[in-house]
Amino acid sequence: MVFVHTRPLSWRKEWQMETEYIGVQKGWAVVGGKKCYFKSGFELRWAQYLEWLKLAGEIVNWEYEPDKFEFEGIRSGTVFYTPDFKVTYPPAVTGKGLLKGDVIYHECKGHLTQKDVTKFSRMAKYHPDVKLELVMQYIPIKPTRKNAEKLRRIDNARKYVERVFDGSKVLKQIGL
Length: 176
Known about the structure:
Layout: H1 9-18, E1 27-31, E2 34-38, H2 41-55, E3 61-64, E4 69-70, E5 80-81, E6 85-88, E7 103-109, H3 114-126, E8 131-136, H4 148-157, E9 163-166, H5 167-173
Helix pairs in contact: 3-4
């Protein structure tokens, strides 16, 4: 579940100044006092967004890659899966299937591969109680010959995750 609220611009600038950013596509950065090695600039911006939600009181906490899930019985291919973010919502949040204090994992993707879809399908099979949302860096609006495969994989992933959404639109709303 994604919440976007408007805050005064001065608050946004002040908050962004408190967030250290190295300025590289991947690498170490500090967000909300947490030092993490982000694998992409998109993951870093998503962490900044989650910190923004935390400061706004919309979420209780976020963690970067805290849990690793195993697919027991699988001997080859994708045996383990580590979602990018673990997001804990406050007890007051209800609706859209969320329970009090519910946890939802966010997976950030710029490019979705068939191996990623396999991970999601195995999560749905081996860990059906775990809620997972797919945050795409960009979702094409119009299908073309060039992006048809990307849209097909996104549609396939929708079968196994709670929801798929365009993270760049969310980030743009708060200036990230």
